[in-house]
Design a protein that fits this description.
Elements (H helix, E strand, L loop, with lengths): L1 E6 L6 E6 L8 E7 L10 H10 L3 E5 L17 H17 L3 E11 L1 H12 L3 E7 L5 H8 L5 H16 L6 E2 L15 H13 L8 E2 H8 L15 E6 L7 H10 L4 E6 L9 H19 L12
Parallel strand pairs: 3-4, 3-5, 5-6, 6-9, 9-10
Antiparallel strand pairs: 1-2, 2-4, 7-8
Helix pairs in contact: 2-3, 5-7
């Protein structure tokens, strides 16, 4: 069963879905989850929520502030630390629900939010299990991989100009999330990013907008979620890495995983970044996440028969 939910703590009102299993009785172990950079929940998070619910887990899926159905201004601005705080508020909200077992909370994130769950899992001990899918682990190193070296000075000048303009009261400067031209201005300047966002937006999430504030890139440059990796233990961590990922490069994720302490597990997908959401990549990624949550959140609890994804 899926129901629409909304909640508010210190920030704007956030909206999403709560999935609960049909073949089990509450209270349920529950997964709190949100999407990555500029994406909204309709961009395949329903499939992950359904996969978890079929395994006897509840799932609280919400849109990040400033995006999708959630409130917040400036619209289309991504502050990673605000999103980290919103994950923690979502955990608090989940704990108020009668359907939720507050002692069995897991978190799941993908891409940008795959980095957020590393931070949340390190600092919030209410979290009992973590899945970080194709995670961003270093904003600085990631930008240096995505932006040509001779373009970096121009990017920094653009960020400084926007900061000064906003200081004088001008509206935030905007930037496309993706561009058909790999050398055109875009926050995510890769061909697979353009294909996935435009096709997924057209077929599943027509409310998605191809824009973010320029400040979102400035904030990304300063964000280093991988620095928290050693602090996660003893909370169990599963990292799902795509071997062909060049948006959040796989070598950066693997190096960070190597610094994580036990208990941990690595699931290596054969494809690229966006293959984790569709086709065989989704089957592998969702199955690995489902099994990890079942192992660590349903231990000693009678679970329904798992449905093979």
């Amino acid at each position: 069963m899926r129901q629409d939910v909304e909640f508010q703590a210190d920030g704007p009102r956030l909206r999403g879905w709560l999935y609960t299993p049909d073949a089990a009785r509450p209270p349920f172990a529950t997964i709190v989850m949100a999407h990555g950079f500029s994406a909204v929940k309709e961009m395949y998070l329903d499939r992950f929520g359904e996969a978890f619910a079929e395994a006897g887990l509840a799932a609280l899926v919400f849109d990040n502030r400033n995006f999708g159905a959630s409130d917040g201004t400036p619209r289309f601005e991504i502050d990673p630390w605000d999103q980290v705080h919103d994950y923690r508020d979502a955990i608090t909200y989940a704990c108020t629900r009668s359907e939720v077992d507050r002692e069995r909370i897991g978190i799941w994130g993908s891409s940008y939010s795959g980095g957020h769950v590393l931070v949340v899992g390190a600092v919030d001990r209410r979290v009992k299990c973590i899945v970080a899918q194709v995670p961003l682990v270093s904003g600085y190193k990631n930008i240096l991989r995505l932006v040509r070296s001779d373009f970096v000075a121009g990017l920094r000048a653009q960020l400084d100009q926007d900061r000064e303009a906003r200081f004088t009261g001008q509206p935030p400067a905007m930037l496309p999330v993706v561009s058909e031209d790999p050398l055109g201005p875009a926050a995510l300047p890769t061909p697979d990013s353009y294909t996935w966002f435009t096709e997924t937006g057209r077929t599943r999430a027509p409310a998605w907008k191809n824009e973010v504030t320029v400040r979102s890139v400035d904030l990304l440059l300063a964000y280093e979620p991988g620095a928290y990796i050693e602090r996660i233990a003893p909370t169990p961590l599963l990292m799902v890495v795509a071997a062909g990922d060049h948006l959040t490069p796989s070598d950066l994720a693997l190096e960070t995983y190597g610094r994580a302490l036990e208990p941990k597990r690595l699931e290596l997908l054969p494809g690229g970044h966006f293959d984790a959401y569709v086709g065989d990549g989704f089957q592998q990624a969702s199955r690995a996440a489902r099994d990890w949550f079942v192992e660590h959140l349903l231990a000693g609890v009678q679970a329904p028969t798992l449905v093979t994804a």
